[in-house]
Design brief:
Number of helices of chain A: 24
Shape of chain A: globular
Distance between the termini of chain A: 45 Å
Strand order of the largest sheet of chain A: 1-11-13-12-14-16-15
Oligomer: homodimer
Number of strands of chain A: 18
CATH class of the largest domain in chain A: Alpha Beta
Number of domains of chain A: 3
CATH superfamily of the largest domain in chain A: Zn peptidases
Structural class of chain A: alpha/beta
Helix content of chain A: 25-40%
Chain lengths: ~750, ~750
């Protein structure tokens, strides 16, 4: 459900350590991959995509169930041991959604997005969700309006400096700048009684590119649906945190489910939003709050503009349908390589999620053909087509929670995809797999340029830097050196979260994008087959590329004697994160000193325009030094142990006895679970990973070393010191396990 | 005629050297300044402003002449020896201006800006100039349209990479990003046959603040007039470069005047421009080209959109009226302190130039009152109210050229003002006066906050930095240290240019601004008394502040035994410029290497979206090392000599004999003329100053060490080496003169 535009631009953060090249793939492996590729067909994917996106397929819709059944039948036809696993989850559907301007004039807003003649399915909205966000809190409110930009924490600081309080008001925010669900959550936390989230044309409308149907950007009538459950607390069914939502599961009362908001919230098109925003009085919005509407943005807060917002939902439990297909491993059946993509959409879901799902189906078909030809994977391969990802990762989370013990015993890796598109490889995940990702990327040909997707990516970063576009400096250094490109850290926003952050299973999230200015159809009725095949991936060329990319990863991990991990990149990356945290402390201390000095000198008061005053920022207690020595020592030890292991493995892997190999694999299979802390992160016990987490105030965006970093950012200094110790212990244990594994190699 | 918004944001670039504090002002000086202040009246200024801005006052209009007569009468009434000096200049006025969309539909555009009920003079447009730019080339053309963003050199590189040629087309550019006159000049140089310059609402319209009359921003109908003479070649009358445009002057034929453009050009409102831009096809405009219109910006270039543009002007010579008033010095009558502000506007000209002119009148009245009370300045004071600044500095340039010999013998300094506004002190000029500017700023109370304007400025820079707004790092360092704030370098755009850059007279340009979001009335009919007193300086509080600021400078320089100069700041500033030039060479060399490597690797081709390709940049010969050793040695010598002089003067000035004092003043009076090079800058002999010049491709924006810096930027490497030598020689001569002056002190 993540916006491909965001992913594509965030591509490839992380470290760039160079290390000895992996051994070339064995000849039989190369032949197998060639055979695999021969079964991948863009035409197949076009057909599946057209059919699966032909009707609304949100959770609990008939077509979503039909798609699950179709996927099941395909897996079976291709020889997989497949079944549907169901869960009973809380999933609200709208009974009525009302939004209307009450003052200065009465204007009815909202309602379903209109059909566009050039888009064949856009008229098939019978049974489709209207613009709505899941897990808002039903209510009926009328109040004055405050425009709060992206609705992120800094925006509330800016409001306070302009004397604006949102208590008792309806907050209008725009999409972007942070995850959707944080906007109403923060509005609610600040006392607002309702929230609107609209799509500003400067972000994904005409300010980006031509509007649909002329181009791919969001039209005046387009609305982004989505979930506003408090995902940074926990994903999955709000009623069953930490356990699977089976029929018999013990459930919270809805009123006790902390991930459900208390205030009504609706998404909105800019065609509607401009009717509100153009009326607002009050202070002028700060410079960075200006969107693409042809108005001067004001903050409002006066009674001259009033909105009526009412939402009523149907809150019964719904059945969701995860398709789970297995291909047993012949040598190591209890080591699982898991690969997934969800199948539920918000409306037709052609890009999100079906473009990724049909790529996954191609892989399954190709693996089935290999199996039919006599090959059997060494490890067990599990393919999963998840339901209910959109409301908040329900299908994957409930499955992972239900099978937690088995997964922690058997899972080697989880590889995820979601919406795909034309462009550049984007990879995020567990950094011991960084080199494998690069090795695969070197073997995949980009269909538009004929070079490897790795080479195209290196060219992109360098051209971006030369031409002054946004780019990542670490990636640039890597690209210039011609070495491995860094992969990014995983936050949230798709089905890897429970595997990685709750269970400690290594994970990767893979996709292509960045050529087309996608994002304009995201979570709207215009995310259709027509839109997707016209703009985002004509002919599904990149659908086939995604299949070949992920298929190789699955094959190489499933068939390797030991999974193709390398820990030097992990250590270097974690060392980089530590450097960022150290710098954060330093920056914060300087900023605190400067703030105090400027406050003492009255500088903010002197600097502001007295006719449009902006008050001084609030005084803050200074950031203390944080106890980072143990963490620094642990990271240094990790680096030493990782390099030693990698060198030993490179030198002696070929000589390992089968017994030693088994002991080595056992030592490594669950090593990432050492990064988990049983009590979880501060205030959110479900998230247990001490290296990667979705940010409390970024949502989908990752926070690395989260226990420490977020505590410093949020001035919870006792937490920072405590989690620096916990993280140090986890990293030291990881290093010790690497030493043990190196001992097995001998 | 410079836009106060631009000036205010550019405030205070330069160096921050700390040096021994100047001696406190003598007691009689303080008393005199107090008496001076007592004569400054915002009410006076309100009255003068209302009357002078009551009718159109562009060059050759009756009211401009009436204003000159009024100013003359006031000077005389205040006891000055005043007269009007006339010149006969080429000044075209429009006979007809036509602009209309021909395809895809016929829409008549252009015409006079409409009256606004809330603006009392906006209906008095009889005799006013319609939207027009002076010194465009008359013509009648019909052609396809290309949108070229700000129309600066980089924009043409971006067009080329998208396969768009402007030959035979009409280029539509938007205001901003560089000086107005460069836009049609560059369009013409690239083969365009016509040019439109429009005001985008993202720059000074609703994207900035509320539109007039609700707020001060440019309304949908507002148009910015201006001059498009090729000022970077030479300012003043196009027919008399280098000599005064007296009745009998030898004149060029109009066809031979190189500062007059060859193609027709008109300015435009965004209300009109959107009718063109919204129709354009062709490639999508690059990200940075997006303005505030609610459209996707395209480049055009196809025959589907055609414009008809026709301009016919009346090209006779016109008489202009400089008011020159003198107050003879009692001790040093042949040392002149000159101070000026122009009186011609584009329409009513309340802000530009009359807000500065009425502040100057207050000073003249106050000096007259001091004189009437028995005081007489030690040096001669000359006040000048220039005509015809707007068409391109004609009044000041022709006067300076006419009196060049006398000015080079007598002028000590020229202090300029132009439009003024509410906010922060902005000062630019010759850096030996930097400390004097700071000493005055420390003595002036800001009317909104009650602290000194220097303290408020220091607070502003620090608050801007803390809050993440644009700021200058050198100014920030200075503000944090609590020392002198740097002053900026002078480029062009107001009447200091001939004095400084042609004659080598030290100059300062002083103004206030930055609180109000001014710029929205600039050069339109809405630059009115109502607009100015409502938004830009209610009650003309900052008019009085400007008078007190500049009045002190005039008094302190006119009465000092030796003008209050200090050369350490000049040396440090020039050293900073040298550092920038050295860094420029280094940056260019690296960029050249990188471009060559990426071209060789085909990286640009791999990185671009094949469906919307952007070609690779053109290959460039690498930037060589430049001979900067002699220049480095000269700058080092300047630093040594300047510090030695400042120290000697601070220690021994009080003990100087009258004869030594006279010799010292003689040695220093024309020292800045040593910065002139007789042959002028490459390709533009009128500009002779080797430290400060308006940029060939920035216009108003300064280029420092221009002979070297611009040659490197434009890949004229032989020029760069040659002007490095010339500049080194000039700086060494300056240092030698300082050594001589120090010898006089003993």
């Amino acid at each position: 459900m993540r916006n491909i535009q965001t992913i594509a631009l965030a591509l490839l953060l992380g470290s760039t350590a160079l290390a000895p090249a992996m051994a070339a793939q064995p000849a039989d492996q190369a032949a197998r991959e060639k055979a695999f590729d021969a079964s991948i067909s863009s035409a197949d994917q076009m057909g599946w995509l057209k059919s699966m996106s032909s009707a609304p397929n949100h959770v609990s819709s008939p077509h979503d169930k039909a798609n699950a059944d179709f996927i099941l039948s395909q897996f079976k036809a291709w020889g997989w041991d497949a079944r549907i696993e169901t869960f009973e989850v809380l999933y609200p559907t709208p009974i009525s959604t009302t939004v209307e301007l009450i003052a200065p004039t009465h204007i009815v807003l909202g309602g379903q997005e209109p059909a566009i003649p050039e888009d064949a399915t856009s008229g098939n909205t019978k049974g489709a969700l209207p613009p709505y966000v899941a897990f808002q809190g039903d209510g009926d409110v009328t109040a004055a309006v405050v425009y709060a930009n992206y609705g992120m924490p800094d925006d509330y600081l800016a409001l306070a400096r302009r004397g604006i309080d949102v208590k008792g008001k309806i907050v209008v925010t725009r999409y972007g700048g942070g995850w959707r669900g944080l906007k109403p959550k923060l509005a609610q936390d600040h006392g607002a009684i309702g929230c609107i989230i609209y799509s500003d044309p400067g972000d994904d409308g005409y300010g980006d590119t031509d509007s649909y149907p002329k181009g791919e950007a969001r039209p005046e009538t387009g609305v982004q649906r989505g979930s506003v459950a408090d995902m940074p607390l926990y994903p999955g069914d709000p009623l069953t945190p930490g356990v699977g939502a089976t029929r018999t599961a013990k459930r919270l009362a809805r009123a006790d489910a902390k991930t459900i908001l208390k205030i009504p919230v609706l998404p909105m098109s800019y065609g509607d939003a401009v009717k509100i925003l153009s009326q607002l009085a009050g202070p002028q919005a700060p410079d960075g709050w200006r969107g693409g509407l042809p108005i001067t943005y004001h903050i409002g807060g006066t009674d001259t503009v009033k909105l009526h917002l009412a939402v009523k939902s149907e809150w019964s439990l719904k059945t969701i349908y995860d398709v789970i297909a297995m291909m047993p491993g012949k040598d190591r059946p209890d080591e699982w390589v898991i690969r997934g993509n969800h199948h539920d959409g918000w409306v037709f879901g052609a890009q999100d999620p079906l473009s990724g799902n049909v790529a996954m189906l191609s892989e399954a078909k190709a693996l089935g053909a290999l199996r039919a030809g006599g090959w059997q994977p060494s490890r067990t391969i599990v393919y999963a087509s998840w339901d209910a990802e959109e409301p908040m990762l329900l299908g994957s989370t409930e499955w992972a929670e239900t099978h937690a013990d088995e997964l922690q015993k058997k899972a080697v890796i989880y590889i995820n995809t979601d919406g795909n598109g034309r462009g550049f490889l984007s990879a995020e995940g567990s950094h011991e797999y960084q080199h494998m990702v690069n090795a695969v990327a070197a073997d995949i040909t980009d269909p538009q340029t004929g070079v490897s997707v790795l080479q195209r990516l290196r060219a992109k970063v360098q051209a971006d830097a030369f031409d002054g576009r946004d780019h990542n400096e670490t990636a640039l250094t890597a690209a210039e050196a011609g070495g491995d490109m860094p992969i990014g850290a995983l936050g949230s926003g798709s089905d890897f979260s429970a595997m990685l952050q709750h269970l400690g299973v290594p994970a990767l999230n893979i996709g292509y994008g960045g050529d087309a200015a996608s994002g304009g159809s995201y979570h709207s009725i215009y995310d259709s087959y027509d839109h997707y095949t016209r703009f985002e991936d004509p002919g599904l060329a990149y659908g086939a590329v995604l299949s070949k990319t992920v298929g190789r990863m699955v094959l190489r991990i499933a068939d390797a004697e030991t999974p193709p991990v390398r820990f030097g990149e992990l250590a270097t990356t974690v060392k980089g994160y530590l450097g960022e945290v150290q710098k954060l402390v330093d920056t914060r201390r300087k900023q605190d000193d400067k703030r105090a000095a400027l406050l003492a000198a009255g500088a903010f008061k002197l600097a502001t325009d007295p006719l449009a005053p902006v008050a001084a920022p609030q005084a803050e207690a200074p950031t203390p030094f944080i106890e980072l020595a143990a963490l620094s020592n642990a990271v240094a030890r990790l680096e030493t142990s990782a390099k030693a292991f990698d060198a030993a493995y490179a030198a002696k892997a070929a000589t390992l006895t089968p017994a030693a190999r088994t002991r080595l694999n056992t030592a490594l299979r669950d090593i990432d679970q050492l990064f988990l802390v049983p009590e979880g992160l501060p205030g959110r016990p479900w998230y247990k990973h001490l290296i990667y987490a979705p940010g409390r105030f970024t949502g989908y965006g990752a926070k690395t070393l989260p226990g420490v970093r977020e505590a410093i950012e949020e001035r919870r200094f006792a937490d920072a010191n405590r989690y620096a110790g916990l993280t140090a212990a986890a990293i030291a244990a990881y290093a010790a396990r690497l030493d043990t594994a190196r001992g097995i190699i001998g």
